[in-house]
Write a structure and sequence with these properties.
about 200 residues, alpha+beta, 7-stranded mixed beta sheet, about 20% strand, binds coenzyme A
C-alpha cells in the first residue's frame, strides 16, 4: 500500500466501476462508465489527494480508500472546484427518474453528504478493492492507514453510507468495529468509527 499518485487515476476509475454495483461489476450500467467514479471517486482525488491510499500490485493500482476529513468543508470545495465541470459533462434532468438520472442528480447535490455527517464523525470515506485482491487483509490495512492520517489531522471520527444489500461490505465494517448510526432510509446503512480505534 502507498499514497495515491496522479498516475493511478485511470486504474482507480476502473476499480470504482468494477465494484460499483453494490460490490459487483457496474461496467456498462450507465451511458458512460466515468459517471460512477465522477460522483464517488474523482472529487476526492481532486480535493483531498492526501487522504487517498492505494493497493499497488506492482502491475497496477487495484484498490483504494479515499476520504474527506471534514464533510462540510468538502461539500463547499466540491461545489466550487468539481461541480462546474461535472455539471457541464452531465446536465441535470428533472424530475430524475432513471437510476442514471438519479446518480447525475446526486453529483449535482453535494449537500446530500451533510445528512450523514456529525460532530463525532465529521469525515467520510469510500473503499473499493478489485476481487483478486479482496479477502487478504488489505481493506483493513487501508482503513488503518486512513485512520492514522485522519488522527494526525485531529479528526475524531469517520462515517460512511453503504447500500443495505451490500451485506459483505457491512460485515467487513462491523468486523473492524464500525458502529451502526441512524440512517435516512431503509436502503442505506450508515456506519461510524472513532479514529482512535486500533483496527
Ligand atoms: C469490502 C472490502 C473493502 C473489504 O476489503 P477486504 O480486503 O476484502 O477485507 P479484509 O480482507 O481486509 O477483511 C478484514 C476483516 O473483515 C472480515 N470480512 C471481510 N469481508 C467479510 C465478509 N464478507 N463477511 C464477513 N467478514 C468479512 C475479514 O474476515 C477480516 O477479518 P479478520 O481480519 O478478523 O480475519 C472489499 O471486499 C471490497 O472492495 N468489496 C467490493 C466493493 C465494496 O463493496 N466496497 C464497499 C462499498 S461501501
Amino acid at each position: 500500500m502507498r499514497p495515491y499518485r496522479p498516475g493511478d487515476r485511470q486504474d482507480l476509475y476502473e476499480v470504482c466501476v468494477r465494484t460499483g454495483d453494490g460490490g459487483a461489476d457496474a461496467t456498462g450500467l450507465f451511458t458512460t462508465d466515468d459517471l460512477l467514479p465522477d460522483v464517488f471517486l474523482g472529487p476526492y482525488l481532486a480535493i483531498e489527494p492526501g487522504l487517498a491510499f492505494v493497493v499497488d500490485t506492482g502491475e497496477r493500482a487495484s484498490g483504494y480508500v479515499v476520504a474527506a476529513a471534514d464533510t462540510e468543508r468538502f461539500v463547499a470545495e466540491h461545489r466550487r472546484r468539481w461541480l462546474p465541470r461535472f455539471a457541464a459533462t452531465y446536465p441535470l434532468t428533472e424530475p430524475a427518474t432513471t437510476p442514471e438520472e438519479r446518480l447525475v442528480l446526486l453529483g449535482h447535490r453535494p449537500e446530500a453528504m451533510l445528512a450523514l455527517a456529525s460532530d463525532r464523525y465529521p469525515a467520510h470515506l469510500h473503499i473499493d478493492l478489485l476481487p483478486d485482491v479482496q479477502g487478504r487483509g488489505l481493506g483493513r490495512a487501508l482503513i488503518r492507514l486512513l485512520l492514522g492520517a485522519l488522527r494526525a489531522r485531529g479528526v475524531p471520527g469517520v462515517h460512511l453510507g453503504v447500500g443495505a444489500r451490500n451485506t459483505a461490505a457491512i460485515a467487513f465494517y462491523e468486523r473492524l468495529g464500525f458502529a451502526t448510526l441512524p440512517a435516512p432510509d431503509d436502503a442505506t446503512v450508515v456506519l461510524g468509527l472513532s479514529t482512535s480505534t486500533q483496527v
